[in-house]
């Protein structure tokens, strides 16, 4: 079964122009702050609704005419972001739209509905197709619905490198369908990435968690890291119990975190790079926690990461892995990460 949906029309260019014209002034302005825009490319273009899959896509498309662009502006979290209407223009003008499946990004669901309603033939590549999802965490806000059939599943599957490999396959099939003359290159790039990057990350994560005496991690972050726990046998305790990053921490959430820290003698905690620092600072002030260090579910990028051309691999190596080494007690902060890592990221702003 293919993961690609192509809307049929006999007049591709006309269909897109008609939809753009009908959108009027709402689509007049560009999408500021993106890593790139489809309008800048004269060749075939795929746009992605989420950073991780933009990064996978650009690796798969290396040495082909296909340009892959990220729709999420630099510095913003990919889940919970609501773009203005101009993003629809980028999707309509693109040859393919790489998305995370229904129920995760409402704006992407609306854009897909627009494509379908107006018979625009932008190919839809669902990265979640065929991925085995886990049930929502017991710590999750009971009002959350999740995704999948019955909406009882956790959407953050790409944090597990093995599940992420399935999304690489899905993107590859979509790109092959789009540009079949470059099938060999797409498939070779994908296999190389799955083996040399995702396979290596999986091995490194497993070594970190296998070496740890501690099997709990306190996160001053939202509920996005369950797949790490499932994959490597560790309990991830988020302080924010909803699926999207927010600053919505209740007094009960804080009391639970304080008790968990006390019961497990936790000295270091992890804080989301694109989330509020306030809960982490409160835990520093009110518990024996000595410092917080960064984690991210690969849902966004900082400007300095873009300047260094960091992708999923570099973020895993330079952000998540050193923090897990520290919060699990494998290494002292000064011994984790590259030179200067602890100084840069200890209680980061």
UniProtKB/TrEMBL annotation:
Keyword vocabulary terms for this entry: Signal, Transport
- Keyword Transport among UniProt keywords: yes
The protein's GO terms of the molecular function aspect are: metal ion binding
Segments spanning the bilayer are: none
Q: Pfam families attached here? A: ZnuA
> Metal-binding: present as a keyword of the record?
no
GO biological process, alphabetically ordered: metal ion transport
Q: Which family does it belong to?
A: Belongs to the bacterial solute-binding protein 9 family.
User: Which PANTHER family does the record match to this protein?
Assistant: HIGH-AFFINITY ZINC UPTAKE SYSTEM PROTEIN ZNUA, HIGH-AFFINITY ZINC UPTAKE SYSTEM PROTEIN ZNUA-RELATED
- Name by which UniProt lists this protein: Metal ABC transporter substrate-binding protein
């Amino acid at each position: 079964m293919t993961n690609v949906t192509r809307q049929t029309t006999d007049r591709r260019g006309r269909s897109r122009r008609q939809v753009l014209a009908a959108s009027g002034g709402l689509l007049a302005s560009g999408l500021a702050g993106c890593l790139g825009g489809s309008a800048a490319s004269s060749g075939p273009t795929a746009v992605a609704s989420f950073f991780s899959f933009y990064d996978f896509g650009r690796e798969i498309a290396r040495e082909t005419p296909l340009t892959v662009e990220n729709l999420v502006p630099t510095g913003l979290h990919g889940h919970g972001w609501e773009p203005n209407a101009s993003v629809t223009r980028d999707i309509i003008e693109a040859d393919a739209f790489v998305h995370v499946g229904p129920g995760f990004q409402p704006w992407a669901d609306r854009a897909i509905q627009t494509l379908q309603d107006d018979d625009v033939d932008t190919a839809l590549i669902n990265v979640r197709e065929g991925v085995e999802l886990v049930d929502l965490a017991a710590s999750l806000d009971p009002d959350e619905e999740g995704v999948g059939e019955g909406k009882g599943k956790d959407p953050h599957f790409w944090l597990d490198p093995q599940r992420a490999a399935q999304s690489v396959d899905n993107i590859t099939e979509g790109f092959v369908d789009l540009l079949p003359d470059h099938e060999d290159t797409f498939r070779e790039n994908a296999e190389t990435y799955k083996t040399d990057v995702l396979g290596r990350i999986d091995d490194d994560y497993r070594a970190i968690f296998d070496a740890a005496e501690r099997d709990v991690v306190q996160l001053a972050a939202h509920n996005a890291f369950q797949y790490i726990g499932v994959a490597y046998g560790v309990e991830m305790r988020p302080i924010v119990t909803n699926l999207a990053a927010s600053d919505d921490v209740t007094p009960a959430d804080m009391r639970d975190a304080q008790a968990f820290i006390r019961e497990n003698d936790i000295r270091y905690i992890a804080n989301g790079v694109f989330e509020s620092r306030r809960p982490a600072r409160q835990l520093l002030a009110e518990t024996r926690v000595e410092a917080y260090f960064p984690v991210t579910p690969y849902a966004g990028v900082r400007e300095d990461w873009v300047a260094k051309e960091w992708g999923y691999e570099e973020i895993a190596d330079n952000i998540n892995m050193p923090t897990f080494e520290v919060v699990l007690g494998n290494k002292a902060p000064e011994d984790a990460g590259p030179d200067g890592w602890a100084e840069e990221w200890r209680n980061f702003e």
